[in-house]
Amino acid sequence: MKHWLRSLTALASILVLASVFVGQLARDASAEANQEKNQISEEIGQAEVWQGAGELNYWLESDASIEPDFGGVWIADNGRIQVGLIETRDSSARSREVILNIAADMRISEGVDVVPVQFSWTTLNQTRDAIRELQHKYIDYGNGVWPIQMGIKTDLNKVQVDIPADESKFTDGHHAVLSEIEKHYKNQVFFETYSAPAVYQSECNPWYCDSPIRGGVGLKKTSSGSGDIDCTAGFIVKGVASEKRFILTAGHCDFTSSKTWKTHTLNYSEKYIGGVIYSGHNLMNFDPSDRVDAMLIYIDQVSPPPPPNGNGWQTWPGIFKRSGTLWLDPFTPPPSQEERYSITGSAPVIAPTVYNSIVGEKVCTSGARTGGWPWPNDPHGGSCGKVKEVGKWLPVEYKPDLSTTYVYETLVHRAALCTRRGDSGGPVYDDNNKAKGIISSSGAPNGATVFDDYNPTHVCNDLKYFTPMNVIMNKYSTQSSGLTFVLW
Fold first, then answer.
1. Residue-range domains of the chain with CATH
2. Global pTM value
3. Distance between CA atoms of 316 and 6, rounded to whole angstroms?
4. Tens of pLDDT along 37-56?
5. Could you give the CA distance from residue 140 to residue 145 in angstroms, rounded to a whole number?
6. Other beta carbons less than 10 A from residue 136's beta carbon
7. Which three-class secondary structure state does DSSP give residue 387?
8. Residue 96 to residue 480: CA distance in whole angstroms
9. 430: nearest Cα among 458, 468, 485
């Protein structure tokens, strides 16, 4: 009897323990579910904060009335949106009211703090850009020379300047830049060091690149088929007065100056760029007695436009430099691959001529059509070669259709390079990050009367002609539209 009671008691204890265990499991599961729900809610809430901060920043940057007082927007470690405000100006109270009203209209005012700062967002941007210009002036970075990096730390209300940690990487140019910063900008900056240069992840395929738009990518008229490359972007330039951004390419690509232009991204999605919207911007149309094979495509998407024209471009002062497959002579090996090769200016004029190239110097090019040529046994990619002739007035045939032929005479230099149809307008540059010109035309060797894209002796020879950079810039500044631009 006692044995039976002990067994019954033990069984009851087991059932109680099982009940407790099951209950604990249920509570644990419930707590885990609640924790997951809370985490999801926090993530959703944080995403809303990020979106709200971005939209608030857009509206505040767009409001000119607060521009002198506005110090930028950032998100604090506690997740709250911070808006910087210079509080020492007569207009500060009014600017604070504008900020809070915009936040209230967005229904996010309870999550926004207005905090005091010393420098305006405009001042920080101007300081960063000024230091960048100092670098362009004093430091010829690349080819083993490490750059100075600069960006805005909005939460610290400063410009962050990154310098090489290894002082052996400093050149006289680095010291000159740091001296200028000390003289003019020391209160607006702070310094950090870096131990290795930044490297880019892949953002280009053989023909096209993601944003930022750059020289060397394929260009297409919006009326062209999906498989066509009409021309190649040369360099990104900026109007001195307007600060608008343009793509410099060959003028014969669009004689009518009425076409709009597009390109593709890395995944081959079509993306709109803009048009040759000013008749004076195509130098082939301006002066029949003194034609220059160049035109400017206006990049009207630097700020994101509404659909269907895409989601906007960033612009960047450089080119897509493709590696190549062919040595044109023992002293001009093909270029190495750099998806962002900085262009820091135009090569200087060689006195007493008006040309910025000399016979025998090395130049390179990176055309989109040859760069993406699909047959690996044929020449493809970028190429380098020597300048063979300068200041050549070259009559070139242009056929807008099968029944019409025009002959235009343009001023060019001749070089040994590799190009195909579709490379027109592509960048011609040197090893010192300088722009030399843009591809204009090609001759066919051995007495051939028709250029053959499939014939390697036509693709690579010393009958490649490019329009000199300084001729282009001088002509734009003196022609009727008076457009003065700089390589940007």
1. 121-194 (3.30.300), 200-488 (2.40.10.10)
2. 0.58
3. 85
4. 344 334 434 445 545 666 78
5. 7
6. 18
7. strand
8. 47
9. 468
